[in-house]
Each structure stands twice: as C-alpha cells, then as structure tokens.
Design a protein that fits this description.
Length: 314
C-alpha cells in the first residue's frame, strides 16, 4: 500500500512538467515564427494538431488509458477545445506572423494574469499573499522585458490584439478545465481537445490561403518541415501533456504561473535566432520570473510529518 507522497516527490511531480514547458514551449517561439513565415498560419496549425493528437492517443494506449469520451462530456470537451486549442492557436499565429517571436511570447504569457483573476471568481480560489506576490513578480518580469517595446506594440495593434485575445482564450480554457475536472485520462482528453479544436481551424484555412494543400506540401522546404515536426512531437504532444497535467491537478494561480519561465526562454531563443545578445534587463527579468515561480509553487515545510511544501489546494 502506497503511503503519502514525500515532499521531494511532490516537488518533482510539479517541477518536471514546468521544466518541460519552459524548454519545449520556450524554444518553440522562434520556431513558430519560422513556421508562419514559411506557411500560412492556419495551414501550419492544421498540419500539426491532428498528428499531435494521435501522438497523445499513442501515449495513452500503452498506459492502459481508454481513448473514449463519455457522451455526456462531449459538449464540455468541445468547449475546452474551443478555448484551449482553437481560440488560442487561431488568434496567436496571426499575431506571431506580424510580431517578433520574443515579444509575442511575453504578450501571450500575460495569460496567468487573466487566469488567476478569472479563477478567483469562477472557482473561488483565494488569492493568498503568496500568490499575489508571485503574480506581481512574474508580471514585473514580463513588463521589464517589454521595456521600450510598448511603442512597437502600439504600431502593431492588430498583432497585439490577436495575441492578447489568444491569452484570454487560453486563460478561460484553463479555468474551465480546473472547474470541470473531466473524469477522462489526461492524455485522452487533451488529444480529443486537439482534434475537436483542429476542425474549425482546418475549415477556415482555405479561406485565408486558397492554395491547395497538395501544392503547399509539395513546396515545403526544410525549415517548414522542421517547424511542423517540432510542433507535432515536442510542442504538440509532450508539452501539451505536461501543461494540461498541471492545469488539471493544481489551482489555476499555480498552474498558470508555472508557465512563466516559457516567455523568458522564448526571448532568449529569439535572441539566439536573431543574433541579439541579452542585457541586464533580460537577466533581471529572468530572476523575477524564477522568484515568482518559486514563491507560488513552494513554501517552507510544515512541522507535521509527511506534509509536502507544494500546496495544490491553497
């Protein structure tokens, strides 16, 4: 019979998905920029989502997880798919197409602000002092990275609106996932969200790019194929499984703030691709984001034995 999880084990259960997200999704921002530069945004995502979903089903099957959704849950799964997949991807990619990768990542990851605020009302999750401090530090880190880029964003209102809309859509989806807690294995529900969310994007793609898909595939170069494959296997399958595991098991304020390292990695990855060099602002922002993550996810161990520092029920 298994006893209660040790504090170290509980920390690692949360730290591992956070690390996966930071690296895989962080590196994906310049890769997304490559993808939507080589392919129309909706066509790019229409090529990746169904295969990433199949990857999640492939992971679920050997683990003994069923891949069926109870009939009573289809409406809620479809709603989750709309906000977490269709709304997020559809709006985001049009913004990324017109804005630098690093700046796009920073705007997109205002999501924790919206999710924490929505969660406080929808889920009655209290905003403890720890969460508020972590939120303020994380937001300060993102604002610092923006710096004097506000002027640039002001000259690209459409791109900024698209990315902020995507962040709001993702925040709503995160809160609903936590509220409903589908009684379905996580890889299964994530795979179906991807497939259902893919449908409207695939239907809309020809209206934004009339080129036949066969011609698009015939003219794809190595850069385009790399972006597609990365978004199928890494950013699609592995990172989505990690994120929705956090979103399902931890309070919204914790799971959403756990994504804060992603824009930092995205900024540095964009700098690497563009040949830029990080300065004092970037290093200080990194310190703020890491501090926010630590404050929100960990606390000093209680005196009672067997109580983990990680507090998913705060």
């Amino acid at each position: 019979m298994n006893g209660p999880a040790s504090p170290a084990r509980s920390r690692w259960r949360a730290a591992l998905p956070v690390g996966v997200l930071a690296i895989v999704w962080g590196l994906n921002w310049p890769i997304l920029k490559i993808g939507v530069s080589e392919l129309p945004p909706l066509t790019f995502r229409a090529l990746t989502l169904p295969f990433a979903a199949l990857g999640l089903f492939a992971v679920a099957h050997p683990a003994g997880e069923g891949v069926c959704v109870p009939r009573a849950w289809w409406l809620r799964v479809s709603t989750l798919a709309f906000f977490n997949i269709a709304g997020w991807n559809g709006l985001l990619l049009f913004g990324v197409q017109q804005m630098a990768a690093g700046r796009s990542a920073i705007l997109a990851y205002t999501m924790p602000i919206w999710a924490t605020a929505i969660g406080a009302f929808v889920l009655d999750e209290p905003l403890s002092t720890r969460k508020i401090v972590g939120l303020v530090l994380g937001t300060a880190g993102m604002a610092l990275l923006l710096g004097d880029e506000f002027r640039t964003i002001g000259s690209s209102p459409f791109a900024a609106a698209m990315i902020l809309g995507a962040a709001l859509s993702w925040a709503i989806g995160t809160v609903l996932l936590r509220k409903w807690k589908p009684p379905i294995p996580q890889n299964t529900v994530t795979g179906w969200m991807m497939l259902v969310g893919w449908v409207p994007l695939a239907l809309l793609a020809p209206f934004f790019d009339p080129t036949p898909l066969t011609d698009v595939l015939a003219h794809m170069n190595g850069r385009a194929w790399f972006a597609v494959l990365y978004n199928v296997f890494l950013a699609g399958t592995i990172a989505h499984a990690a994120y929705f595991t956090l979103a399902r098991t931890l309070p919204v304020a914790v799971s959403s703030l756990a994504s804060l390292p992603v824009p930092v990695v995205g900024v540095f990855a964009g700098m690497l691709v563009l040949g830029e060099r990080p300065g004092a602002q970037e290093w200080f922002a990194l310190a703020l984001v890491v501090a926010a993550l630590f404050i929100v996810m960990f606390r000093p161990a209680r005196s009672e034995p067997g109580v983990a520092p990680l507090a998913p029920d705060d």
